[in-house]
Amino acid sequence: MEEKKMLRKLIISLFGLVMVHVMAPAPASAIENHLSEAIVHAREAVAAGREGKSSALVLHATNALEHANAAQRERPNAHVKKAIVRLHEAITFGKAKRRAATTIADRALQELERAPK
C-alpha cells in the first residue's frame, strides 16, 4: 500500500516535470539532454529491478523510452534504436514481474551508453 502511495506521488511529480519540459523552449543541446535523461532513467530502472521493485522499473524504463524516442527523432542512431526495442521489452517483462526485465533494461542501458553524444 505504501509503495502505491509513493508511486502515485512520483508519477504526479514526473507529470509536473514533463509539463515544465514541454512548455520550455528546447535548448541547443536537446539531443544530448534526451540521451542523458534516457541513460539516467535506464540506470534507475536497472537499480529498481535489482531491488525487486518491478513497478519502479516499469516507471523508469517508460521515462527512458520517452527520452530515447525523442533523441532518436532528433538524431537517428542504431544504438538508440536497439535501446528502444530493449526498453519496450523491459517494460513488458516488468509489468509481468519477470526477473528478466532487469537484464533487458541493463542491455538497453548499455546500448544508450554506446550511442554517440
Could you write a compact summary of the structure shown?
InterPro entries: SmbP. This is Small metal-binding protein. With 117 residues, the protein is mostly helical.
> Strand pairing plus helix content: what structural class?
mainly alpha
* CATH domain fold name: Four Helix Bundle (Hemerythrin (Met), subunit A)
The CATH superfamily label reads: IL-4 antagonist (De novo design) like domain
Estimated helix fraction: over 70%
Q: How is the biggest beta sheet arranged?
A: none
Rg over alpha carbons: 14 Å
The SSE string, one letter per element, is: HHHHH
Instruction: Give the number of DSSP strands.
Output: 0
The separation of the N and C termini measures: 40 Å
- Extract low-pLDDT stretches: none
Number of domains: 1
Shape: flat
Average pLDDT value? 89
CATH hierarchy, class: Mainly Alpha
Percentage of β-strand residues: under 5%
| CATH architecture identity | Up-down Bundle
Task: Classify the oligomer.
Answer: single chain
Number of helices: 5
Question: What are the defining features of this structure?
Answer:
mainly alpha, Four Helix Bundle (Hemerythrin (Met), subunit A), 117 residues
What is the secondary structure topology, with strand pairs?
Blueprint: H1 2-23, H2 30-50, H3 54-74, H4 78-95, H5 100-114
